[in-house]
């Protein structure tokens, strides 16, 4: 027993220096000696080919990553400011250089992390700290019109992949000192900058605290896109329905913040996140506010009718021809029989086959170049549809129904929710093919129960209809005049009852 204890203690003693060495390697100081500092930077970054080391003077050395810093600012502000400066301290450099953001650091890891996002490290011989001059320069595409959320009336500008550009666009829409911006760094390998935005006094504190806590608790290796972050922090990642909105429009994002929602912007992603979001809000477009209220109401009702047709029209056709011939009108029964006389497959196989062809054409059109994709979608649909009817694989009426369902699915203004609508058709068709109308009702009940159980940041997903909140009905499925619409919904109402004033509603509190 004593020998075993001695071996264990010896093993622990052997491990402790290694652990201490690892900790020291993770938290190295800044070496006062120039050669030691350069060697430590090279060892930590594995001597990359784009690591630039410039000797300004015998005592001053600048280290940075090529193409991550603004060369013009480096030459005009940093090099000119440090010219002929041999005897100087980091504090003096801090006051000499005309750069907006300059910090001092005594830790090597922190300094290198700043260098990897576009800072230049200024080292002075004999000093145990380094100057971090942030003169980053990121290459990004220019501002362009939205591609996935296009509209006729309204702003024609979209986010790009630069978080600073996106934040400036939001600031142009909301010139309010209460607009809060909290920054986080996610991903051990990517060190991605994430900004959480909300308007103090309008956004609910519970929602702000929930988002802040979920982001802070994340321990991930990498983060590239905002869609990944939305899936990581939403209430139910196993649900097919999105609980947070991904938008590329700064006007829609700003409108959501003004409505009391919490926004998230991820560096490197052209899509921003808004939450909490309800099921019915996914079928609303920013353009609805710019249209006259009768037209906007008609368009919204048309979208919901299109969603119902997209999910249930093909299953109703399959169930009617498989089990319920009695529901088909007599004038339509004869053309249906003649159309299906040469078809060797049951309706369920026929419907699934055509739905699969539609999805293949859609996916091929998305992956090909724009002009080629449009041609493939149109020509492919016509050629395959005509050939399928002539070969007796399918009927003319089913092709019309499938085409109508495909068109209806594209009326959903949100791309993520549109994908959900298209996917839901397949299990509904299968249930209709096995159990007829009973299968359709089973699919509808499962879908309804699932929606009623969902939430977004703890807020009901099916609000304002369940639970019923009549004050939010004027801007849900229908859109009444703006004078009757409250700016903030019950789901996003903040705790300060004096701050949120609806200026469009005569200055009444909401």
Automatic annotation (TrEMBL):
Q: Which domain of life is it from?
A: Bacteria
Family listed: Belongs to the GerABKA family.
Q: Which GO terms describe its biological process?
A: spore germination
Question: Which Gene Ontology terms of cellular component type are present?
Answer: plasma membrane
Q: Give the subcellular location.
A: Cell membrane; Membrane
Q: What Pfam families does the record point to?
A: GerA
Annotated signal peptide = none
Residues spanning the membrane:
301-323, 382-409, 429-452
Major localization class:
membrane
**Topology class, membrane:** Multi-pass membrane protein
Listed InterPro entries: Spore_Ger, UPF0353/GerABKA_families
Name of protein? Spore germination protein
Q: Which intervals carry biased composition (Basic residues)?
A: 1-10
Return the annotated region ranges for Disordered: 1-29, 491-510
Q: Which UniProt keywords apply?
A: Membrane, Transmembrane, Transmembrane helix
């Amino acid at each position: 027993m004593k020998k075993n204890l001695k071996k264990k203690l010896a093993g622990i003693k052997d491990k402790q220096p290694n652990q201490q060495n690892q900790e020291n390697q993770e938290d190295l100081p800044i070496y006062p000696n120039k050669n030691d500092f350069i060697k430590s930077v090279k060892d930590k970054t594995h001597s990359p080919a784009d690591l630039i080391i410039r000797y300004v003077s015998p005592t001053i050395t600048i280290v940075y990553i090529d193409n991550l810093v603004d060369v013009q600012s480096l030459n005009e502000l940093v090099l000119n400011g440090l010219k002929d400066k041999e005897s100087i301290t980091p504090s003096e450099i801090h006051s000499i250089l005309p750069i907006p953001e300059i910090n001092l650091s005594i830790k090597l890891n922190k300094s290198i992390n700043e260098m990897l996002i576009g800072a230049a490290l200024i080292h002075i011989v004999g000093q145990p700290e380094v100057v971090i001059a942030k003169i980053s320069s990121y290459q990004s595409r220019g501002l362009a019109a939205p591609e996935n959320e296009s509209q006729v009336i309204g702003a024609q500008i979209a986010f790009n992949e630069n978080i600073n550009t996106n934040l400036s666009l939001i600031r142009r829409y909301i010139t309010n000192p209460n607009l809060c911006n909290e920054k986080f760094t996610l991903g051990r390998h990517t060190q991605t900058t994430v900004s959480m935005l909300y308007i103090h006094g309008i956004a609910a504190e519970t929602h702000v605290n929930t988002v802040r806590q979920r982001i802070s608790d994340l321990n991930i290796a990498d983060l590239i896109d905002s869609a990944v972050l939305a899936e990581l922090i939403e209430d139910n990642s196993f649900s097919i329905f999105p609980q947070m909105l991904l938008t590329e429009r700064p006007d829609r994002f700003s409108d959501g913040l003004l409505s009391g929602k919490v926004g998230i912007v991820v560096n490197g992603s052209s899509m921003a996140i808004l939450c909490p979001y309800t099921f019915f809000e996914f079928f609303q477009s920013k353009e609805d506010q710019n249209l006259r209220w009768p037209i906007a109401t008609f368009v919204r009702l048309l979208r919901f009718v299109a969603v119902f047709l997209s999910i249930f029209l093909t299953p109703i056709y399959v169930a009617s021809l498989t089990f319920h011939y009695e529901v088909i009108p007599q004038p339509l029964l004869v053309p249906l029989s003649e159309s299906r006389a040469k078809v060797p497959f049951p309706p369920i196989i026929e419907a699934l086959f055509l739905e699969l062809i539609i999805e293949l054409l859609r996916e091929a059109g998305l992956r090909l170049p724009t002009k080629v994709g449009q041609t493939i979608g149109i020509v492919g649909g016509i050629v395959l549809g005509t050939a399928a009817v002539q070969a007796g694989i399918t009927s003319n009426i089913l092709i019309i129904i499938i085409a109508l369902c495909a068109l209806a699915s594209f009326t959903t203004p949100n791309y993520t929710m549109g994908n959900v609508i298209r996917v839901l058709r397949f299990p509904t068709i299968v249930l209709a093919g096995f159990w007829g109308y009973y299968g359709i009702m089973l699919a509808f009940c499962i879908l309804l129960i699932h929606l009623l159980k969902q939430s977004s940041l703890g807020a009901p997903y099916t609000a304002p209809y369940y639970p019923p909140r009549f004050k939010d009905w004027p801007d849900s499925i229908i859109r009444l005049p703006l004078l009757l619409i409250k700016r903030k919904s019950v789901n996003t109402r903040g705790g300060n009852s004096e701050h949120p004033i609806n200026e469009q509603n005569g200055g009444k509190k909401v």
